Amino acid sequence: MTSECGDLWVFGYGSLMWRPGFDYLERVPARLNGYHRDFCVWSHRYRGTPEKPGLVLGLDRGGSCRGIAYRVADGKKEEVLAYLHEREMITGVYAPRILPVAVPESGRQVAAQAYVVDRSHAQYAAGLTPEERAALILQGHGTAGPGRDYLANTVGHLAELGLTDRRLSHLLALVDGMLAGTLPVPVPPAGPPAHPANRPGARPDTAI
């Protein structure tokens, strides 16, 4: 794996692809093997409420994920890591990892900071069917807006990059079918109690 003079690489698979929030030297399409992008994190504030939870993205084990890798100057490394910690580690559902990420356009493999879902955390949404996920995304509406917008934005930005995520495209088709009334809407699962950091008056959950 390569690095440039100690520079930091960061892998983005969700909102980091279009809203990184930090300065970078390089932005390139990349692939992370061994993990896939999925709506597998309960959201009680950002895209839902304690009464009507939604879902946000996480990197879960298995498969592969195409996204964006950012190269950050060595002198900005600590600042960016602190920003990412503030953004992603509010409830502890994401675990920071240094993982090998392939950069196809140059044939490089770089060691990148990524945030993967902690399956032992209460916010990990395990065992849901695609239809249940779609129903939760459809009902979810939090401080950042509707869950459907978050899903559509992710699919749209992937398309702008020439990328397709079949799992997310299928979810969007289910959500839109339910919204249009052409598909039945299952009763959304209740989910776990809201994490203290996501209760009213606290800072919202988020997702890379």
UniProtKB/TrEMBL annotation:
Low complexity compositional bias: what residue ranges? 196-208
Q: Name one GO biological process term.
A: glutathione catabolic process
Composition bias, kind Pro residues: at what positions?
Answer: 186-195
Region named Disordered? 186-208
Q: What is its EC number?
A: 4.3.2.7
GO MF entry, a single one: glutathione specific gamma-glutamylcyclotransferase activity
Enzyme class label: lyase
Alphabetically sorted, this entry's keywords are:
Lyase
Tagged with keyword Lyase: yes
Which InterPro entries does the UniProt entry name for this protein? ChaC, GGCT-like, GGCT-like_sf
Pfam families noted in UniProt: ChaC (PF04752)
Q: Name one GO cellular component term.
A: cytoplasm
Q: What name is this protein filed under?
A: glutathione-specific gamma-glutamylcyclotransferase
Q: Which organism is it from?
A: Nisaea acidiphila
